[in-house]
């Protein structure tokens, strides 16, 4: 093992230790942070070079693969899931997430301008903050504004545009993990505090992809992390996702104003296009004459998940009948954002040739509510020194 690799592994392990120390009274051991490799496992991890950033920082791609042919490719730039291959009902394995083939495409300023956030880790704050401003303990903070007058998904250079350190692990003979670490410095994109973040991707042999988020800070701050993969369960990115059948375990959703900032209301989904409590196709009501749909050019809203005191529970499902693929999303978060690719305009190249057109992918982003720092009635997103931010999302794939 060369010196650079030793230093690299030490850096990530130091981050894990830092998080453990910062967590008050937390004595549980997290197996996903174990760096011991079990060679007997049939779940595999491989590593490839993926290129260099503009400042010559090396970017790696890690490929996690299980016995069923499910395969997840993750790059250290942005923690991006570049592909996610799962079998259909005929056991044909196909990629079901939008993305690019090369690092150059992820770095292309013209592509970034369209803000797709394909497959990326989002932070420090997923979703929008009004006018890029919030106050805490009498101090006003100004964030980068990258969505008109608003702050979106961490700003101009959020967690989706930085290079994360990585450590790969295989454990328990049935799972493989990739632990990503990033230290966001005080006032980066305007956020207070040095925020040390770990994100662990774990693939299991039962076709589960688990995403665990952890963070600590040395100064009071706000945190809301999420994952921004665009799914198309058909495996054909030339087709729209309107035939996908969705459920969302939510009795209420969050209406937005013309700039997609919450109005502060939590509205009952009954008798609205936002009722997904019983499975229905995305396209069934997406073009209804509804002011909220008009504002988002379709669905681009956060739902208030039911049973918030129960922790991890089923938040949403997506089913594509032709392929037979079923996606179940489990979360311990209070909300989930359904976004239906309304800003895809056919300007971005597809991995399958051609371009990504209008509504050819959908996102299910588990999260706290948008603009929570400015909405007194929303659950708090404040993280204090000595406390630990910890949340988990599970994407489970099967066929029927």
TrEMBL record:
GO-annotated molecular function: isomerase activity
Catalytic activity field: alpha-D-glucose = beta-D-glucose
Native source organism of the sequence: Mariniflexile aquimaris
Enzyme class: isomerase
Name recorded for this polypeptide: Aldose 1-epimerase
Pathway(s) the chain acts in: Carbohydrate metabolism; hexose metabolism
NCBIfam families hit by this protein: PRK11055.1
EC number: 5.1.3.3
Family: Belongs to the aldose epimerase family.
Subunit organization: Monomer.
